[in-house]
Amino acid sequence: MNSSSTKNHKNDNKSLVDRVSAGDMRSVARAISKVEDVSRDASELMKQIFPLTGRGLVIGITGAPGAGKSSLVDKLAMYYRQQGERVGIVAVDPSSPFSGGAILGDRIRMQQLGLDPNVFIRSMATRGNLGGLARTTVDAVSILDAAGYGKIIIETVGVGQDEVEVVKAADVSVVVLVPGMGDDIQAIKAGIMEIGDIFVINKADREGVLSTEKELEALLSLAMREDFWHPPIVKTVATEGKGIEELAVAIESYREAHLKAIAPDSRRRAIARWRIVELLRERLVAQTLESEGASDLLDRLSSEVASRHRDPYSAVEEILRRSQ
Amino acid sequence: MNSSSTKNHKNDNKSLVDRVSAGDMRSVARAISKVEDVSRDASELMKQIFPLTGRGLVIGITGAPGAGKSSLVDKLAMYYRQQGERVGIVAVDPSSPFSGGAILGDRIRMQQLGLDPNVFIRSMATRGNLGGLARTTVDAVSILDAAGYGKIIIETVGVGQDEVEVVKAADVSVVVLVPGMGDDIQAIKAGIMEIGDIFVINKADREGVLSTEKELEALLSLAMREDFWHPPIVKTVATEGKGIEELAVAIESYREAHLKAIAPDSRRRAIARWRIVELLRERLVAQTLESEGASDLLDRLSSEVASRHRDPYSAVEEILRRSQ
Description:
Two copies of one chain form a homodimer.
Chain A: H1 3-21, H2 25-36, H3 41-49, E1 57-63, H4 69-82, E2 87-93, H5 101-113, E3 119-125, H6 133-146, E4 151-156, H7 161-168, E5 172-177, H8 185-192, E6 198-201, H9 209-222, E7 233-235, H10 244-260, H11 264-290, H12 294-306, H13 312-323
Parallel strand pairs in A: 1-4, 1-5, 2-3, 2-4, 5-6, 6-7
Helix pairs in contact in A: 1-2, 1-3, 2-6, 4-10, 6-7
């Protein structure tokens, strides 16, 4: 690439960034597609996007499948709309690239939140091996932030490693449970205890709410947080819109408490560090595998490992030797 | 490191590998701890372990939290024990490193499968940023395979990106559902359709089994698999041991069908490729961040990104420039 085409790229990005910061939905969608592409171009784009961020409130919502997260997110988004806020929703869908799960999710949503020009919904799915879902998700959130969405909700379907990281990277993290999850509830709770700034018991019209609430309270009373925040428990019936305002109030309380506190500083540094390492990981692999002949080498080594003529460790050493 | 210490390392590994291949449980545990440590040493160990693998059947079991996977895995393990098989269980727990979720899981388990010397149970948790959970899990499976465990069961708590990859890397993948998961069932199913070689509807004594089964059948009838395998649906009540034999039969049928088929070849190559790329990713980041001064640089850049004086992309570029 010569310097004039680099310059053109920068100009293209400049006008795209201008349109994003003016809140143009099509440009927001285009910008997100760019960061999903693992193209070199996204780097220049994101460098210009980053200084425009930091105004919106990023709300991470996680929980097990079946907990009714989607309904909860939709109702919370509608509540914010009634307050006059613009709302961005990023749904993380770690499903197979072939399944179309994300598209299905979008279609169901569109019926509910309609074509409200002040609500932007995007599902992020795993599309390949190289582009990390976590990195593309936080980049998409930054783009929505730059576009002036006041509330940005990240919803994750899973409770996987990457998904947990993404939710931790939010300004406030909400963990959704349902009554009567059975034997696994202890294990689930143990796993998400550290993540939740706010806990929701959704489907609170079901049996077992009280015992789930008591168990959760007991677990929370054992935890000692650095910031001395005691995570509230909010009961909701999302499908009927019950408890949504209480959730919004809890979110606002957390935001207010932490505007004054000193603790979030270490959290922000940890998030920044994680973003840098994620991006570094992706870049290093891309550099190595995009170099000349690397693709053929990887194909050959994969065959050799598959037929057990070679182990993955020595295969990696061969790739590393070659690229140095 | 001079050549004599390298030689000693190799000798240490040699005797460890010997003890692993003799099926010594303590050595298996030690070997797995080594691959979790992201220590340089694990590479030599795994090179020697790899040629000993390929004999055991690796069964991946996934599904939402609350689906009763742990009970199902325990009962399946007991069934295999009754058949005289040695069983390894690797539970993937993507929970916070502080929560102790994995340890909790182990303790509950030990009461059930007792101290049977022919059952090896290990929980893999996220312990840091650098060691990938997916890579350490497949390495642990290889070690159990080399140690002569005939059936190796990988259980994942989540349905995240890494967890899906791990399950895909198994010889046979089992997806566990429960009746009446509500609104999210379409989305979940869409996401896991491609993964499941066998589907289990657990807690099949609950309401809604029939409709869940019908929905699932409808979805499966739409899918066209490369290997023409039609994934069977097995109904279980794991806590009562019901349907466990049927599940074992389904697993065996899949294994037999694929011993003769040609399709798994491409699957094996895809798995090998994924293992190489995962390991490469980890190695490249470790090399870069373990170089002299890199830690201080990362700290400084993290602070700058956290205070918005810098964007993550230019931070990564600075790290890359420095390391080249």
